[in-house]
Design a protein that fits this description.
alpha/beta, Rossmann fold, 4-stranded antiparallel sheet, 6-stranded mixed sheet, single chain
């Protein structure tokens, strides 16, 4: 379980997260919502021990700032949009083998690790990409590889920043189903700017605004606080019931 108490993160003179306290439940899909600059990415990076902080942050009872990064890396996958220029023409196979380094004990290019990479790509319907170079992929194909990078080391916690970036409507439908499968035995925490997508799949919600938590709770409670969501996003939002779920839909006119 992830527990945060009085957490503050500053970048020079800018406060990205301001004295937040929250808990993220296990084996659920938690969706972090908020406008640009709200602190969504910073919260994920802090959990993954990628930025310094003040306050307390516990991951399975381990205080993150006092725990070796290798231990955190075994528990957590933090994945964000990637810049292919940083990878200098590496193939999908290469990056998925590299991503497994924190959980390897021997030679990283063993048959086991290659089979694991292929299995994850098949789950995403992208195994044909394995020998392609990252800088040859479309933005949608690259995003599927980003998802595979998160999954391939089989962590307990999956942290996805902008999980649905560049994903088309058809694969978003598949992604909703995949997140439901992943969250059966993992804790999935993701950010998105798509309210429809987020409320279609999220079990638990954190709403951030200017580095502060303004809402945290279950899906149905979020729906009952739609006025708060409208205020945070400065937009008109309606609710729509589809099956057993209520979905938030922004209105652009």
């Amino acid at each position: 379980m992830i527990n945060v108490k009085s957490l503050t993160v500053k970048y020079s003179d800018f406060t990205a997260l301001n004295d937040i306290t929250l808990s993220i439940p296990e084996n659920k899909a938690t969706c972090i919502l908020g406008p640009n600059g709200a602190g969504k990415s910073t919260l994920l990076k802090t959990i993954a021990k990628l930025v310094d902080y003040k306050g307390c942050l516990y991951l399975d009872g381990l205080e993150v700032s006092k725990t070796p990064i290798k231990t955190i890396a075994r528990l957590v996958s933090y994945v964000q949009p990637i810049d292919t220029r940083e990878f200098m023409g590496l193939t999908v196979r290469d990056v998925l083998l590299i991503a497994q380094y924190p959980v390897t004990t021997g030679f990283i290019e063993s048959s086991f690790h290659l089979e694991r990479a292929i299995t994850v790509l098949k789950q995403l319907g992208s195994d044909k990409l394995i020998h392609r170079k990252l800088n040859e992929l479309s933005s949608g194909e690259l995003q599927r590889v980003v998802l595979a990078i998160g999954l391939v080391k089989n962590p307990k916690y999956l942290l996805f920043d902008e999980i649905d970036l560049h994903i088309d409507i058809g694969f978003k439908k598949s992604l909703v189903k995949l997140i439901r499968v992943w969250s059966r035995d993992k804790t999935v925490v993701f950010t998105t700017h798509d309210l429809v997508f987020g409320t279609s799949i999220g079990d638990y919600f954190i709403l951030l605004d200017q580095g502060r938590v303004v809402y945290i709770g279950e899906s149905e409670d979020l729906i009952n606080n739609v006025e708060l969501v409208e205020k945070v996003f400065n937009a008109k939002i309606i609710t729509y019931r589809y099956g057993e779920r209520h979905i938030l839909i922004p209105i652009y006119y």
